[in-house]
Amino acid sequence: MFGCISERNTRRFLQGNRERSYDLLLGFFIFTWRIFMEEYLKSAIRIEWVAQKLILDFQKQGPLINIIRDFYGTKIFDNLLVIQGSFDPPLLSHFELICESLSLHQKQYPHAKTALLILLSLSHVEKGTDLFIHSLLGLRVEMLESLLSLKSLNLPWMIGISNSGRYIDLTEAINKYFRNMNNITYIMGIDVFDKLFQGIYYSKTLSEILPAIFQTNYIVAGREDVVSNEDFRSYLQSLSHESQKVIRETKKVSFVPLEKKYQFESATKVRNQLSLDQSVKIPSLPPQILDFIQNAKLYSKNQSILVTQMIIQIFVGIMLERGVDLNKCIQITQKFIKNNITNKNIATRILNEYREKKHLFLEKRCYELLMEHT
Questions:
Q1: pLDDT at position 204, please?
Q2: Is this structure's pTM higher than 0.70?
Q3: Contact 63, 163 (CB under 8 A)
Q4: What is the Cα–Cα distance from 320 to 332, expressed in whole angstroms?
Q5: Which end of the chain is more exposed for a tag (fewer CB within 10 A), N or C?
Q6: Do 373 and 332 touch, CB atoms closer than 8 A?
Q7: How far apart are CA 83 and CA 92, in angstroms?
Q8: Which of 190, 181, 205 is nearest to 253 (CA)?
Q9: Collapsed DSSP state (helix, strand, coil) of residue 223
């Protein structure tokens, strides 16, 4: 009898120690994670605000872009190299494509005053973004800036957000923002280039839309089964006769073959790897971006980062609809995150509601906090 009691007590003691150790470890993690996130939290809220406002403005003002970061000072430019994507996360293949495209562009236009514009696309990625597998735009901007620091590009660069999915709309948005562009050149993979010629994306026929498509230039990167100039020529021959004719006549399409190691890189694959093991070494990620991801616990399905991202997304959306100014939005959102991020019950409720595409708790708390501030 005494032996059984002793054994039971021993088990309880060990289990209690394990739970206390887990709580201490969790507490230490949240403390260090909060220190890291505080540096980026305000920026993440501000960029989420800009992004959601662009989506709302699309209905009234049409295609738009907004520049979030820039590095050009007083330099003047009249040519734009533009690459658009989700960049979640940015990979070495993205940087390689930018460098190869820049090199080609400088050969084609040796006297042009060129700038690089990297755009995070909202239309097909962010609207309805699942934060269980994606990261907030603000954190991607930080990673993109880190990517651009890998080596000197010797040209002005900007990071922005676009609410345009179609490239003919994106051209309209860029011309609204920059009024003196002589030349716009889009950088893209062969899979994206192929979608330019798919009629399902347009209300007009392809023959009607081709002139609008080819008012800009294109630098196309090889991928998978299109890896050489010969492959690309064969691919072009598979397009409609009218598309082939416009490409021949305008001479606005160039091909850039990438090294084999870059041809099969995938941000989706990287996110999946990191969700399983945060300590894994990923050759397609620059070391400083991998460090950033590991410090922020991105893609790890960690409760703290998921809940923080969800609070920012929901609070910003509600406050934009209510006409609350940006500074008040940042103040309320930061305070709520700081006061509630360690509360397990609140975190569990937010996660469960997010899975069910409901946000009743966060909506209620946001409205209550707005009433308090009013």
A1: 85
A2: yes
A3: yes
A4: 13
A5: N
A6: yes
A7: 14
A8: 190
A9: strand
Q: Specify burial of residue 295 (Cβ count, 10 A radius: 0-12, 13-18, 19+).
A: middle
3-class DSSP state of 104: helix
The H or E element that residue 63 is part of is none
Residue 206 confidence (pLDDT): 84
Side-by-side strand order, sheet with 183-189: 65-71, 157-162, 114-121, 79-85, 183-189, 217-221, 253-256
Query: Residue 127 — pLDDT band, cuts 50, 70, 90?
Result: very low
Span 269-289, pLDDT tens digits: 999 999 888 888 899 999 999
Record: fold of 62-267:
Rossmann fold (3.40.50)
DSSP string, 21-79: HHHHHHHHHHHHHHHHHHHHHHHHHHHHHHHHHHHHHHHHH-S-EEEEEEE-TT----E
Q: What is the mean pLDDT of residues 68-80?
A: 85
User: Which residue is it, tokens 């609410």?
Assistant: 163
3-state SS assignment for residue 218: strand
Count of residues for the chain?
A: 374
- Pair of tokens at residue 107: 């050969």
Neighbours of 204 (CB within 10 A): 10
Q: Can you tell me which residue has the tokens 């959306």?
A: 317
Tokens 């790890």: give the residue.
Answer: 300
Q: Hey, is 200 helix, strand or coil?
A: helix
The pair of three-digit structure tokens given for residue 233, joined into one six-digit string: 């020529």
Structure tokens at 162: 């676009």
What are the domain boundaries of the chain? 29-56+302-373, 62-267
Residue 165 C-alpha from the chain's centroid: 14
Classified as helix, coil or strand, 42 is: helix
Separation CA 359–CA 374 (nearest Å): 22
SS3 breakdown of the chain: % helix, strand, coil, rounded to 5? 60, 10, 30
Q: If you average pLDDT over residues 141-148, what whole number do you get?
A: 94
Ordered alpha helix ranges (H), 62-136: 92-108
